[in-house]
């Protein structure tokens, strides 16, 4: 089955000589990317005759022709499609190649397969370079189709499945689209802190970060190995000090020589030092250090209580109020005990912040950003999107096209409530009562975007009572310049607002919602000194992936999901 | 001083009409970026006659001409250069505009200033749109030149200084260069977890993440408001149960009606339920929950001890061994009590991981990545680099050019030690002894890169005794396939290795260094099933910024530095 160069037609020989011009070799590896073969518009047919080295993991393999050769479907994660590889029995022990999950690196020649096969190209192997075997009886994910729930118990291997690999590529594409969008529009990427001593909206849901527990455990071990001095030890040391003191006194009274006195004083000092060390050690107590019955955070790593951030917004505002257009893209945390398919304890957020801009600008930016991401996926990830459409959500590609092309509906909160009330009159049942002043529930949001308008909807100007203190108070004194972007499939995708830039107004609002001023003094400084009209929003990155792919559970669109009771790896 | 349209020469009128064609308006704001004026190769001269709206903060301002007009140097963070703005006294109270830090938005017309001035263009204001005032007596950073150390106490305002703004733009550029480099080379960006239950290299330096303390404080408060039942309360409840039980028994013995018995049983059940509730509450104890004298982590948020990650490497390997080429770029943490100018408790790391690749590929990738970043800065941030060269480090631009163009020296650890020993023989003094087997100290690394070679140096094949268990054992059984990239100014910039892909060898190495196997079983699985040759490295992102800018203290190149005793905002 193997053929020699001599058997190739001249054009193929030429192609083989110019290999690097046509098949992209990976820059930091001696193999080619499988995508550079099967991801071509011609399915790779134009590469027939080229010699390549390919590496990847076997998706499915089978011995054929009574064991004279094997077919392997090889995938290296560069695209959803596999490369069909044909290995002759003379080149390797075929039974060691065919198990799902086996890693193989092979040299071979690309050939057009016989008429009637699905593939446009296949690789006839000339040499098996290396094999990473799999014992199929022990491999935790041997089959190609496993439930997403099952895979959550095998986080370290699940990226080897078609679904999780496709999600990884889509997630990567959306992340780079995010950076590209904001960079193209002159935003600076700012790394807001993960560790924070500011509490954005109430400490209830924050994870605490501390070294007090490990320090106290270290101390506990140390005290067992090396017990603290007893009262008797300390009394004895005190006795030594007093004796040495007496000795010095006597020498002085006796007008002893200077050197004698100096020596004696040195002895005294040594005794004093020893006593003070013992007294210090006697104060050491196992357990977390306390003061006045409360934990003594002055002894914690940052000399105060520290938490994991729930949002970078307040901090990134300090940069917006200095370099105008900024965004964060980083992990955020909620210590919520929610076990839903929409919540994670650790998730990624994108938070732009724009100076010299108002709520209209904010909505324009949010809409442009979401459309940009949709277009990016259609442009760069269509093969993965086709896989998602085939396997999970028929409508996902149409949804991207629709959102990318249709202007988002924009309605005020008041209009939204009127529409919901109309719907109720028309017989629509909601679990949560509809009236002006409520926070819109997910069912209301989904009704607006999925039923009423069947496209993205931006709701703006919410009642101030249900929104955060930093949102700009409108002239009606009842609503604030907030906006939420609702999209089919997930409901709320983005929440944002124009920020209150007037010092007196925001100070009043902080007090009104019952927060102390002191922790916000730095935030107030932004309004005290050179204040600027500004706005921003937050996009839950995993929600965007759910929206794009149609995947139901947020735990499947982040590589290492963290939720109550689980933080594997 | 204001001029009307009629006074403009015709070509300027035309230019004014075509404003959006020539001056870039910010996409989500009604102002133009100052960079789009003064950042042009002609310094903005070609825009004379155009009407624009500009916004920014006053760097310096002064009233002139006996108070008839004011000069403002306006900066919006889009570039290091300011726009010179001239405001007539008739348009605003000039004294309210000139203080450093004042935010102004103005409409005006661009004019070529009189001969002999530094500026190529200035903005003659026609209307002052808005002003965010500053009281210079109270403004914490009123002067334009303040020490970096002073600014660390004003994190929320320091981005308004030339230096911190320039660093923000350089940092942004390096971050996007990082993504661009890896995306161009077909790497997938993978978000490795921040919260982890794996301990990469020994728990000593990890921050613990917990909800136990806040939960116990919540409980403590609740128990004060609503004290737990006393033994007497419980005894009384027990009494009720026994009475109700007796009543049921009697009714049954008396063959009472079914409804009477049912009612009595219901009463009994209610009493039992009450008792069990009281018993449950009586078990509540203030303080962190313990079991067998140890903290009971099954009651913590993740049902086990959790930490902040020190590296995403082990986790990202699971993706490399599935989709081939990946990288992480995220925050990492060390609870080290180091107060040096080179350490942070929270810092950002870039960690690529490449499958089907060995140590040579790893070095090639690291060198190409560093060169790419240097070229990127020279190409896109030259104005900021010129500012750094002028203000902090004369040689920084030359250093970028040198690193971008010169091949990195590559020497083995053994050769490096020989060179250091030669240097010692030649009279060079090191604080740390030089001999084969030592971990190279910073002074050794800087000698090699700054003195001996005066260019970047990659040292590879280190003694296994000083390196991590996951690095691939070389055939000499004494060294591992590790490599460090050393650069002038900072020393070690990158550390990487080929990973041990052989199951038996890595298992042996884990035991050899005294680690338990169980927590690494998932990591071993990557070698058990479909193992692949792979390598990777980590780049400390802040070190790259120090290298590029010549800034001395790492606390000044991250927006919100965290170190022992400090985590402001």
What does it look like?
The structure is a homodimer of 569-residue chains. Chain A has 569 residues and is an alpha+beta fold. The first copy, chain A, has three domains: 32-130, Nucleic acid-binding proteins (OB fold (Dihydrolipoamide Acetyltransferase, E2P), Beta Barrel); 163-206 and 304-554, 2-Layer Sandwich (BirA Bifunctional Protein, domain 2), CATH 3.30.930.10; 209-294, no CATH class. In chain A, 37% of the residues lie in helices and 20% in strands. Chain A contains 17 helices and 18 strands. The first copy, chain A, has helices spanning 10-17, 19-22, 35-38, 148-151, 162-184, 212-225, 231-253, 258-283, 313-323, 359-380, 382-391, 396-405, 413-425, 442-452, 503-512, 521-528, 541-549, and strands at 51-64, 69-75, 83-88, 103-111, 122-132, 188-189, 195-196, 208-210, 290-291, 294-295, 306-308, 325-333, 346-355, 409-412, 457-463, 479-487, 491-498, 534-540. Chain A has an eight-stranded mixed β-sheet with strand order 6-12-13-18-17-16-15-14. Chain A has a five-stranded mixed β-barrel with strand order 1-2-3-5-4. In chain A, strands 7-11-8 form a three-stranded antiparallel β-sheet. Mean pLDDT of chain A is 93; it is low at 1-21. Strand 8 of chain A pairs antiparallel with strand 8 of chain B, so a sheet runs across the interface.
Largest pleated sheet of chain A: 8 strands, mixed
CATH homologous superfamily annotation of the largest domain in chain A: Bira Bifunctional Protein, Domain 2
Q: Tell me the Rg of chain A in angstroms.
A: 34 Å
Strand content of chain A: 15-25%
| Class from secondary-structure proportions of chain A | alpha+beta
Family (chains A, B): Belongs to the class-II aminoacyl-tRNA synthetase family.
Keywords (chains A, B): Aminoacyl-tRNA synthetase, ATP-binding, Ligase, Nucleotide-binding, Protein biosynthesis
Organism (chains A, B): Gossypium lobatum
Catalytic activity (chains A, B): tRNA(Asn) + L-asparagine + ATP = L-asparaginyl-tRNA(Asn) + AMP + diphosphate + H(+)
């Amino acid at each position: 089955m193997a053929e020699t160069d001599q058997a190739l037609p001249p054009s193929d020989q030429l192609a083989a000589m110019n290999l690097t011009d046509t098949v992209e070799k990976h820059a930091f590896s001696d193999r080619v990317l499988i995508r550079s073969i099967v991801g071509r518009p011609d399915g790779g047919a134009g590469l027939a005759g080229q010699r390549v080295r390919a590496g990847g993991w076997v998706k499915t393999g089978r011995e054929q022709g009574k064991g004279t050769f094997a077919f392997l479907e090889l995938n290296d994660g560069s695209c959803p499609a596999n490369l069909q590889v044909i290995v002759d029995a003379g080149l390797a022990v075929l039974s060691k190649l065919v198990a799902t999950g086996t890693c193989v690196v092979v040299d071979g020649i690309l050939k057009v397969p016989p008429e009637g096969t699905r593939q446009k190209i296949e690789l006839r192997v000339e040499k098996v370079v290396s094999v990473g075997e799999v014992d199929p009886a022990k491999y935790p994910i041997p089959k190609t189709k496993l439930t997403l729930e099952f895979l959550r118990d095998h986080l370290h291997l699940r990226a080897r499945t078609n679904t999780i690999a496709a999600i990884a590529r889509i997630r990567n594409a959306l992340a780079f689209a995010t950076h590209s969008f904001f960079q193209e529009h002159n935003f600076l990427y700012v790394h807001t802190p993960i560790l924070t001593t500011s509490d954005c909206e109430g400490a209830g849901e924050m994870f605490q970060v501390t070294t007090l527990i490990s320090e106290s455990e270290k101390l506990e071990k140390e005290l067992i190995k090396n017990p603290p001095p007893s009262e008797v030890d300390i009394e004895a040391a005190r006795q030594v000090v007093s004796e040495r003191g007496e000795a010095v006194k006597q020498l002085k009274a006796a007008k002893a020589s200077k050197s004698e006195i100096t020596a004696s004083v040195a002895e005294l000092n040594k005794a004093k030092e020893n006593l003070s060390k013992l007294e210090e050690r006697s104060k050491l107590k196992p357990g977390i250090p306390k003061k006045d019955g409360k934990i003594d955070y002055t002894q914690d790593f940052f000399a105060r209580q520290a938490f994991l951030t729930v949002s970078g917004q307040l901090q990134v505002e300090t940069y917006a109020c200095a370099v105008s257009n900024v965004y964060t893209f980083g992990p955020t945390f909620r210590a919520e005990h929610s076990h839903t398919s929409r919540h994670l304890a650790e998730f990624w957020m994108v938070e732009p912040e724009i100076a010299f801009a108002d709520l209209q600008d904010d909505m324009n930016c949010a809409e442009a950003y979401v459309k940009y991401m949709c277009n990016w996926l259609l442009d760069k990830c269509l093969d993965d999107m086709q896989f998602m459409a085939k396997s999970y959500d028929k409508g996902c590609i149409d949804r991207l096209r629709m959102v990318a092309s249709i202007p988002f509906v924009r309605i005020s909160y008041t209009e939204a409530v009127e529409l919901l009330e109309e719907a109720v009159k028309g017989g629509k049942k909601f679990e949560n009562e509809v009236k002006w002043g409520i926070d819109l529930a997910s069912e209301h949001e989904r009704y607006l975007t999925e039923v009423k308008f069947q496209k993205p909807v931006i709701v703006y100007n919410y009642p101030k009572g249900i929104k955060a203190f930093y949102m700009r108070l409108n002239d009606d004194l009842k609503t604030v310049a907030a906006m939420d972007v609702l999209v089919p499939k997930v409901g709320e995708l983005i929440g944002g607002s124009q920020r209150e830039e007037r010092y007196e107004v925001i100070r009043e609002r902080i007090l009104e919602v019952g927060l102390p001023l002191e922790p916000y003094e730095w935030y107030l400084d932004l309004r005290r000194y050179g204040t600027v009209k500004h706005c921003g929003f937050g996009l839950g990155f995993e929600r965007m992936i759910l929206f794009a792919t149609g995947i139901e559970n947020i735990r499947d669109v982040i590589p290492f999901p963290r939720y109550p009771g689980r933080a594997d790896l």
